[in-house]
Amino acid sequence: MSARLSGKSVIISGAAHGIGAAQARLFAREGARLALFDIDGEGVAKLAAELVADGHRVVHTTADVVSEDDWIRVVALAEDELGGLHALSNNAGIFRPEGVEETTVELFNTITAINQLGVILGMKTAIPALRRAGGGSIVNFSSIYGLTGSGLATAYQGTKGAVRLITKTAAVQYAPEAIRVNSVHPTMIDTPLIRNGVPENELRRLLKLVPMQRIGQADEVAHAALFLLSDEASLITGAELAVDGGYTAGAPIPD
Q1: Can you tell me whether residue 15 is helix, strand or coil?
Q2: Among 145, 156, 174, 247, which one carries the catalytic annotation?
Q3: Radius of gyration of the chain from Cα atoms?
Q4: Residue 227, burial from CB neighbour count under 10 angstroms (0-12, 13-18, 19+)
Q5: What Pfam families is this protein classified in (predicted)?
Q6: What's the N-to-C CA distance of the chain in angstroms?
Q7: Contact 96, 153 (CB under 8 A)
Q8: What is the pLDDT along the chain (255 residues), one digit of tens a residue?
Q9: 156 is catalytic
Q10: Do residues 119 and 163 lie in contact, with contact meaning Cβ atoms separated by under 8 Å?
Q11: pTM of the model
């Protein structure tokens, strides 16, 4: 086993599926102690049981990123059961494709609560624990659509753009305390979030805009988060890492 996260306790939100589950499996192999949570309690319990059976140290719970009380409970679980907190992956999020005129107030509030407020609450509750541990690292999940427009998913894009700048301002605020904060910006990734949220014909159209001409895999994003959470990224804070097959570099010239 390699040890890029050896001795570190890591919280992962939205850990039951997709990129969250990929991070959990990768981080465990890299020596991390894990506190996993998801609103899907059954899914996160199943993943935790798999990792424990493989000999990893994992605690889990059902929790909602929009609840400050739930976040407080998760951070306390990590500190009490895993000996402190050293890193946070603010991974949980939802995607809806509605544009400006189709976005209701209810939909806007739901997406903003999960994708934006959830990130703020995660940082707010984790940072005191990271401070008690002498510093640490946070990865906030944004999107390629936190960097560029698309003509759809208005509320989603708004939240992902907000996450990008929330990350930067937190990075500046907490750099003197050895707490690093960076954002990851994935392209279309082969996860339930995309498969259930984007029609197949629309996905094919979007992938034509990716210079690498393919959908991404959850493990590819997990490795980016691993780097930012590890000590290998010790001088990196306030950065945005696009894991996007070249999407944000520019659209390829059409045939």
Answers
A1: coil
A2: 156
A3: 17
A4: middle
A5: adh_short_C2
A6: 46
A7: yes
A8: 469 999 999 999 999 999 999 999 999 999 999 999 999 999 999 999 999 999 999 999 999 999 999 999 999 999 999 999 999 999 999 999 899 999 999 999 999 999 999 999 999 999 999 999 999 999 999 999 999 998 889 999 999 999 999 999 999 999 999 999 999 999 989 987 777 777 888 888 888 889 999 999 999 999 999 999 999 999 999 999 999 999 999 877 776
A9: yes
A10: yes
A11: 0.95
- Identity at 82, one-letter amino acid code: L
- Rounded to whole angstroms, the Cα distance separating 97 from 39 reads 22
DSSP labels, 147-191:
TS--SS-HHHHHHHHHHHHHHHHHHHHHGGGTEEEEEEEE-SBSS
What strand order describes the sheet that includes 58-62? 58-62, 33-38, 9-13, 87-90, 136-141, 179-186, 240-243
Residue 236: is it exposed, middle or buried by C-beta count within 10 angstroms (0-12/13-18/19+)? Answer: middle
Q: Identify the structural domains of the chain with CATH numbers, from first to last.
A: 9-244 (3.40.50.720)
Output the six-digit token pair for 168.
Answer: 């930067």
Question: Among 136, 178, 149, 144, which residue's Cα sits nearest to residue 163?
Answer: 144
